[in-house]
Design brief:
The protein is α/β, with parallel strands linked by helices and 282 residues long. It is built from ten helices and ten strands. The chain is elongated and about 55 Å long.
Amino acid sequence: MTKNSRFRPKDGGRDSGRDRSSGAPWKAKGPRPTRDDKPSDGSMWIYGTHAVLAVLANPKRKVLELRATRNTLESLDDSQVDKSKIALTDGESLSALLPPGAVHQGIAVRVHPLESSDLDQALSTAEGIALILDQVTDPQNIGAIFRSAAAFGVRAIIQQDRKAPPITGSLAKAAVGGIELVPDVRVVNIAQTIVQLAEDGWMTVGLSGEAEQDLADVLDSSPVVLVMGAEGKGLRHLVGERCDRLARIPIHPQMESLNVSAASAIALYAAHMAQKKKSTDG
């Protein structure tokens, strides 16, 4: 794993709500909504085109409200969304509903949070790849990890319930729809969960910069749980002890460490390729 993690934001600008046909700003009718970062009914806003479309494609989601600017509405394909269910707004009014600086791209949806998945249901069989985040706390990093996990077909992401941040709109934006595809499992004790997964037939591999073996040398076709440590701290001692093996990602000596989201993406790719190669050879 890595010892230090630094996140560099990469979000761009937001939709201004400008009407392309006239060149003038388009204003929604009615009073401008007040900012409501945490709606009183426990719902949440998810924003950004990819994140919203992923929500709409998830049958587990109940959509409470869907808003978009005219420009964004026109850019969407009819097969992606039922446009008759979208309330038109302008960029400024949409921004007023969301946290300061939210890059909404002209569209947002209000939903209830997804319930945390049960470990036994999410990983009912030992097969494929799963991921454990040991006290990773940066929401942007976690969102990026969900994105990578979805790209490599990860069965579940497991986090400690009292240490991991909740799924928010900004995390969902960073995940680019990944939170709709990869179950979010919250557990009480990470070390004990590793023991349970090992008993269920999973090989558990902790990523550590101090490990003696390279990750590629310990991976094979076995169902694998990759365990990633916290930003700046790495794996906790007890968590590392519970893993079947510890491995490192070899990097140039001039660079001390990798960001946890980058390390996770590399580790997931390595695990995916190891399983794919073995299945092809076998």
